[in-house]
Amino acid sequence: MKSGRLLKTARLGLAAVFVVLALTAAGYQALDLIPDPLVPRLADPQGSTRIEDRQGRLMYEFAAGSDDRRRWTPLSDFGPLIPAAALAAEDSRFLHHPGVDPLAVVRAVGQNLGAGRIKSGASTITMQLARALRPGPRTWRSKLRETVLALRIE
Fold this sequence. Notes:
Elements: H1 2-30, E1 49-52, E2 58-62, H2 81-90, H3 102-115, H4 125-133, H5 140-153
Antiparallel strand pairs: 1-2
Helix pairs in contact: 1-3, 1-5, 4-5
């Protein structure tokens, strides 16, 4: 029984490595097809701020208007703890990958294949930025576009 489970784990690992290699190869081939990320689409400064859950459902919305108290605050005004907490929660290997975290991709593919459904994701902070700059439907094609754009941003 253990050897069967070990064989299944080995196959999942091999499949995950293949997916990572395929995405990396496709990403490097497609770099020139993605618009320059240094020319972002800026959000409407008069628009409202939306807080959504992981499935994209609206949890709360802060309406913009004359009573709006939002203002731009430089990251340096927050001190070192806020950026460190964000990195720890969202992308602990942020400083050690090129915009796409191969270890997270392998982990997510293994968990998702093992569960038979999407259980885990592998988006880095840079991939989240790519999604925000070029929003679209959540498809394999858009995930590949996010991957390529994240590599280009980095």
